[in-house]
Amino acid sequence: MLKIYNTLSRTIEDFKPIKAPKVGMYSCGPTVYDYTHIGHLRTYVGNDILRRILENSGYDVTHVMNITDVGHLVSDEDSGEDKMEKGARESGRTVWEVAEFFERFFWQSVDAINIKRPNIVAKATDHIEEQIKLIHKLEKNGFTYQTEQAIYFDISKFTSYTKLSGQKLEEKETGARSDVVVDKQKKNPVDFALWFFTVGHFEGHSMRWPSPWGEGFPGWHIECSAMSMEYLGDSLDIHTGGIDHISVHHTNEIAQSEAATAKQFVKYWIHFGFLQVDGEKMSKSKKNFYRIDEITEKGFDPLALRYLFLTAHYRDKLNFTWESLQAAQNALNNLREEVRDWDQPDIGCAEFEQKFTEAVNNDLNMPQALAVLWDLVKSDYPTSAKAQTLLQMDKILGLGLEQYVGKKIRIPEEVQKLINQREQVRKAGDFKTSDKLRHQIKKLGFEIEDTPKGTNIKSVL
Ligand code: AMP
Ligand code: ZN
């Protein structure tokens, strides 16, 4: 049985879905006013691993993810301007075009690192009605108040407000005071907006919709409550996100949802640790981030990044360095080379499959799971058995190993000719031409390695 750490209880719990075999899983998606970076991808790979483990255990998973395409709240530190509006103005595009552009980049990044796309993708701008309906419910239940600038959730009405973070309310108030949008009519600094009016601070905001209270746009938090409950019902099995979302975004989601339904919103809250650079969170605002295309431009395979993510426990922070990515790339290359010579998959090794399952079911211990994989690779089992078990493991790891297992290198005639030619010039001591030929061969997808025992040919695929 899967055991997983639940932020809500701060303990590792047995995973028991509300209505097995169905599992409803909601993940906070990207804010599409900027590029997706590899820090985000760590969290999304985490989601993907969790989903694959659940599916592999026979659960019928519905994975829902939102796309935050309404620009708001995320104000630029210097100007206080909405970032999406600012991005649009600076690039000469409309806010809709900005959102579309970065959403496309998000999906390219997700596909490159072999993350399964969610079953349902919900855009905030396609669900304005649902958000208005939820605000209406909260209003009816007595949890809101209105100022000239916005409709707020009144946190004094929701007594278990800090149950997810375990913070004291006083600590929260200090954090919330640094808000960029100042509204003097707000009762408590921790109260958060459900709906902003396009007046005052937001007069020039381009995305706007009519509502029963006046023209405006939804607050950030309301979209996740509205869309998750729309697709998964009032109570979800799993809700995921990065640890930065615990104290504000997810805390607010609980307040909004439970105040509306009077039911428990989420059974298991799962949070992923940060990808860091030099000990600091990789983030858009710190500008210390790398994108997936920067990884590939440097000659790395996006799947090496996935491998790197698997080497750390999901709740721990992981410091990104190019050296660690190189080490992951080397490990992946070695694995690929090793499995090429294996026979076709046949009856697998139960012993290793069991150890692997134990590791992943133990709060997603992927470093341990990788160790089991290497023990399998080095074991004396017939390669057909190893192949079968490795491919089973890869259903969860997602390293695309089926492309390599048992795929002995077939060297095309054209390449073989060049290899022979190189052999001859080398014997004649013409190392300059030999090097030229090596480059030519590499361009065709093959690498030559000269060892004391002779020449090895590797595919660079
Ligand atoms: P955002 O677009 O900023 O809302 O982030 C999308 C998701 O990525 C959220 O679940 C964040 O918690 C997560 N995230 C952002 N930065 C990092 C990071 N450096 N490491 C891991 N996850 C992150
Ligand atoms: Zn969310």
UniProtKB/TrEMBL annotation:
Which residues make up the binding site for Zn(2+)?
28, 224, 249, 253
Q: Where does ATP bind?
A: 284
Q: How is the cofactor bound?
A: Binds 1 zinc ion per subunit.
InterPro entries given in the database record: Cys-tRNA-ligase, Cys-tRNA-synt_Ia_DALR, Cys-tRNA/MSH_ligase, CysS_C, Rossmann-like_a/b/a_fold, tRNA-synt_1_cat_dom, tRNAsynth_Ia_anticodon-bd
**Its domain of life?**
Bacteria
Q: Which cofactors does this gene product need? A: Zn(2+)
**Record's SMART domains?**
DALR_2
- May I have one GO cellular component term? cytosol
Record motif 'KMSKS' region, residues: 281-285
GO MF terms here are: ATP binding; cysteine-tRNA ligase activity; zinc ion binding
Question: Is ATP-binding there in the keyword field?
Answer: yes
Q: Which chemical reaction does it catalyze?
A: tRNA(Cys) + L-cysteine + ATP = L-cysteinyl-tRNA(Cys) + AMP + diphosphate
- Can you cite a GO biological process for this protein? cysteinyl-tRNA aminoacylation
Q: Which family does it belong to?
A: Belongs to the class-I aminoacyl-tRNA synthetase family.
Can you state the subunit structure given in the record? Answer: Monomer.
Q: What is this protein called?
A: Cysteine--tRNA ligase
| Protein's organism | Candidatus Daviesbacteria bacterium GW2011_GWC2_40_12
